[in-house]
Amino acid sequence: MGIDGNENEDYVMVEVAKEVFGSELTIIELGETFGALAAQISSSTPSPQDSPMLGPISEKAAPPAPATNQEDILPALVSHATAILQAHSALYTSPASPVRPICITQPHHSKKEIMFTTFVFSIAIAQANDISFLWSTDSDSWVYPDTLSTAIKSIYCDERIGGTATRFSIHNRDESMIAHLAAATYEADFALQIGLLSACDTTDCQPGPCALFRRKALEEAVVKWYGQSIFGFRPLVNDDRHLTTRLLLSNHSVTSHPLTLTATDTPTSLPKYIIQQTRWARASFVEGTCYPRIFLLHHPLLCLATFRRFYVPLLNILIVVRYLSTGESSAFSSLPDIVARLLVASLYSSTRIGQGWRHVPLHACSMLLFQVPQAAFQVWAGLSMFENTWGTTGRSRS
């Protein structure tokens, strides 16, 4: 597990890990992030932290050699992580201790930075123990006992599949009406969209709470994922979606397993929900606009789904503007079409994924909550695509 921060407020999470794992927990305190280390390797510029005689005792390992090209960066980082793990006697698993809980702390930067560090350490452990799959989840998510095994079995035999995700449930759905409707959205709109794309092996986002990666596919993608740059700008809030984009660009298939479950939380108030949806829309806009090559490599449905997500809301806005400016009405769809879509989708979601036909009104309302504001979310996402904050009250560094 990785903790983005090594100050007093961050050690509360370390204490939680100690309560859960007790004396079996290995704590590794890093004096710098592995993202900073990757930059040093890439530029061949030494840092004071490169010295094994400087920095925290947990980081005293021989520095990695400078890399001459991008392909050499990950092996150098993995070698450095391996040395640190060996220094803590935490590299190898054994029949007596098949799971080694490890908690990594580093200076505060961003979610993407701690993800990169933990990915490198996970790859080091996986290579040393011949582990083929890596699982990533968030601290606010619940992973059930059979989730990992079922997800692995679903892609084990197909080397083309670089990763898969599971279906969501919401564990705080009863905290507010917004949370209840948002939870129903995961059973309706999200499940239908993801299921359709997964049928073509082209799921465009492995969500943070429930992402399973084939190790070899992750090794190909992780350095390019971390180094993402658009016109010199480095996005930090689209980590999940861009990692999936990298798998797709490497010509890997990406799926989602509808019968495997992971529970996560959802915003409980309308302002928080709007912030979340705006952030997601911005990430979708960046990936869909800046990486069109994925549409040439994969099933046409991926392009169609992206077009529907981005350009149909824009078309709706143009229709409204035209009506307000000229008085001429037009429509991309019709009211009967919309009603039929709500009815069919809510019936299917309620009977197939939800708790029966009594939840049809709930799923219909959840689709309205999700679809009606999409035009505003997508337009603002396009106008603010380089916004790099999470919009929350926690620490933020862009």
Automatic annotation (TrEMBL):
One matching Pfam family: Glyco_tranf_2_3
Entry's Gene Ontology molecular function annotations: hyaluronan synthase activity
Any single GO BP term: hyaluronan biosynthetic process
Superkingdom field: Eukaryota
Protein keywords: Cell membrane, Glycosyltransferase, Membrane, Transferase
InterPro entries from the UniProt entry: Nucleotide-diphossugar_trans
Record's subcellular location: Cell membrane
Region (Disordered): 42-68
Predominant location category: membrane
Cellular component terms (Gene Ontology): plasma membrane
Name of the featured protein: Glycosyltransferase 2-like domain-containing protein
Organism, scientific name: Elsinoe ampelina
